[in-house]
Amino acid sequence: MTRDGATLAVVGATGLVGQTLLGVLPMGRDVWGEVRLLASSRSSGRTVDAAGRELQVRGLDDHAFDGVDVAVFAAPPEVALEWAPRAVAAGAVVVDSSGAFIDHDNVPLVVPELNPAATKRTGARILASPCATTLTMIGVLTSLHRRWRLQELVVSTYQAVSDAGSLGVQRLYDEANALGGDRSVGQYPGDVRRKLSDLSGASPFPAPVAFNVIPWVGGQGDGESSAQELNVRAELRALLETPALKIATTCVQVPVTTTHSMTVHATFEQRVHREDVVQALTQDANSVVVLDDPRSEEWPTPVDVVGSDPVFVGRVRQLEDFPRSVQFFVCGDNLRRGSALNLLEIAELVVS
Q1: What residue stretches are annotated with the Semialdehyde dehydrogenase NAD-binding domain (predicted)?
Q2: pLDDT tens readout for residues 25-56
Q3: CA atoms 102, 142, 139, 348: torsion sign
């Protein structure tokens, strides 16, 4: 660390999460003496605005991490697996968002609002940031778990295409453009696929995403649950410190550019009341905003939440058949609250 501040490297600086992180960088404390932008050789030489400065993007090479204190990886798992150990060998602490190290015992999963001490674990040179789906709901669940102790969770997610990076966003726009002029499309089996059959470029999704929803997000997982569903379950159990918590997750891709949404059915060890749940979420310092007045049609939606830092909760309900359960709807910007802000907060904790 220099006397003028620490050196931060952002790997994947030209991607959606990397660009979002650079956008929120001025919001952080003034701890960074140097911000080094790293990306693939394709982006090397590009100029990017970061914290009010024009910085040039460098390619990843043997000297990319020389003098770096913290290296934030906003890059695919294969990049993190190759380059994170090199960053550690060069003396940096790595903060990774790819999920590549989720199964490593010596890599703590960190959410600074919940477990800041995890950044100081002896020997931990790689710190993992949870996936956007987990980060969107963990503040809400933690507030409720501390009071009433969670027993079961049933979660269905509605995930934005930006989770697949710029390729996901571009694919949605391309498909919507190809389908948008035809008002008859979507009326017959297979007509959407036929309409898109000549669309150039490979899709990051296993089915059309425009005019559609896809009940599968992520890799193959165990063949029955997707990799995303398995990761969310593992991350929630780890952060809530409940290894036996019963969790059922269904992750669904929807034609939304940015902002994840989810419905949560949470069951507790004891009876709960809707009013107490709303009060807990409103009063806790958990980056959660309750927007819940169905009579006035007030509830969070992705187009209203995008670009915001808090997580928004609405549709808080308690059904007569489930006296120990509450249901609610959650919305959070997957690039900001679900990725960039947590990465930056972890990085700042490391050098504090």
Answers
A1: 7-122
A2: 876 567 888 999 999 888 887 888 877 778 99
A3: negative
